[in-house]
């Protein structure tokens, strides 16, 4: 099959390209190679693919890329929490407008293949919680006064009791808490409208915390794994926000690439959590990285916080396993040991 991958030179996109090529597919890779993501053209780009440089919002370029394409894997996006609301136009432009242009051109081309969208667990906002008295509850944003006082756990919105975090599944209501999350949910909604109008199978893959080789180095838009890895490489102690007990699901990038290959070869509308199914704390990740790097460093728990962050969000992976046949295969310790010495991608930010 001939598959177009947008955002193909990026952290996740490049691994998707590699996995597709290794599976025998013909790949067209499109990437804008923005300086904020790539200081130079990456050396890891597989020459077996056809590579094109340009913005997904360039309709003429898209029409060229789509010629003879059977399926599309849409990874192109501006990622991360962002610096402040000054980033809002860039996020909406790259993520939402870029997706809208792609969908318009797919419709014009009478595209009949599969479309896989890189979504994110950030669409959930906070994860799933249970109250001893009220059962499943959805806590609102944590009050600033609580965060400033070091009270990081969200209380029950009904009685104020302590909550227990639970794995979240795809049926949970969406409640994004930052601009990036809002744009990812809007991407899902746009693709859903496209699917209803055209009958095209659209699969949204909600990535949890992805880590591994080719993550960007030292950028405010990077995920926590990249930030910690950059610190360790520079001989600095990783700075852990809050108390380090916030839980996430860390999934290796090769597992994420494998999930994309499955989605591109299966008629299975999403969304699907793409995750390991084993929650870890942010503090655990920092400590594991320090130990794996052999550095005489210990994570520094700072008590700092970001208002747009959530406390606990980790996945129930059962639907992806049952329908897609996806199950993460890279153990956490093994993946982090590799990541601790893996080369990071340079950016100009």
Task: Report on the architecture of this protein.
33% of the residues lie in helices and 17% in strands. By secondary structure, the protein is α/β, with parallel strands linked by helices. The strands form five sheets. A seven-stranded parallel sheet has the order 3-2-1-4-5-9-14, sandwiched between helices. The chain has a three-stranded antiparallel sheet with strand order 7-6-8, with no helix packed on it. Strands 10-13 form a two-stranded parallel ribbon.
SSE order and pairing:
Blueprint: E1 2-6, H1 11-22, E2 26-31, E3 50-53, H2 59-65, E4 71-74, H3 88-108, E5 114-120, E6 128-131, E7 135-137, H4 144-148, E8 164-166, H5 179-198, E9 201-207, E10 209-211, H6 224-233, E11 239-240, E12 247-248, E13 250-252, H7 253-264, E14 272-274, E15 280-281, H8 282-293, E16 300-301, H9 318-324, H10 332-339
Parallel strand pairs: 1-2, 1-4, 2-3, 4-5, 5-9, 9-14, 10-13, 11-16
Antiparallel strand pairs: 6-7, 6-8, 12-15
């Amino acid at each position: 099959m001939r598959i177009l991958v947008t955002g193909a030179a990026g952290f996740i996109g490049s691994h998707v390209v590699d996995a597709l090529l290794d599976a025998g597919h013909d790949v067209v890779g499109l990437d804008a190679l923005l300086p904020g993501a790539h200081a130079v053209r990456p050396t890891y780009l597989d020459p077996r693919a056809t590579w094109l440089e340009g913005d997904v919002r360039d309709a003429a370029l898209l029409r060229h890329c789509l010629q003879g394409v059977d399926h599309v894997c849409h990874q192109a996006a501006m990622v991360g929490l962002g610096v402040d609301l000054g980033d809002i136009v860039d996020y909406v432009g790259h993520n939402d407008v870029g997706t809208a242009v792609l969908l318009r051109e797919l419709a014009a081309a009478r595209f009949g293949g599969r479309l896989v969208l890189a979504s994110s667990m950030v669409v959930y906002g906070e994860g799933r919680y249970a109250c001893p008295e009220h059962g499943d509850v959805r806590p609102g944003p944590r009050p600033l006064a609580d965060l400033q006082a070091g009270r990081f756990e969200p209380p029950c919105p009904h009685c104020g009791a302590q909550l227990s975090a639970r794995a979240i599944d795809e049926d949970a209501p969406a409640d994004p808490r930052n601009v990036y999350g809002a744009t990812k949910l809007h991407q899902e909604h746009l693709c859903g409208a496209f699917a209803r109008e055209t009958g095209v199978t659209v699969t949204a893959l909600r990535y949890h915390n992805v880590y591994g080789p080719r993550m960007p180095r030292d950028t405010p838009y990077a995920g926590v794994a990249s930030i910690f890895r950059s610190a360790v490489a520079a001989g600095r102690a990783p700075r852990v926000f809050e108390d380090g007990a916030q839980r996430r699901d860390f999934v290796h990038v090769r597992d994420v690439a494998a999930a994309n290959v499955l989605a591109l070869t299966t008629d299975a509308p999403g969304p699907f959590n793409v995750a390991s199914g084993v929650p870890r704390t942010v503090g655990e990740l920092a400590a594991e990285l320090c130990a794996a790097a052999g550095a005489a460093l210990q994570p520094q728990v700072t008590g700092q916080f970001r208002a747009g962050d959530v406390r606990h969000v980790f996945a129930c992976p059962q639907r992806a396993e049952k329908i897609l046949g996806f199950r993460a295969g890279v153990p956490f310790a093994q993946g982090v040991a590799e990541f601790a010495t893996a080369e990071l991608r340079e950016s100009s930010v």
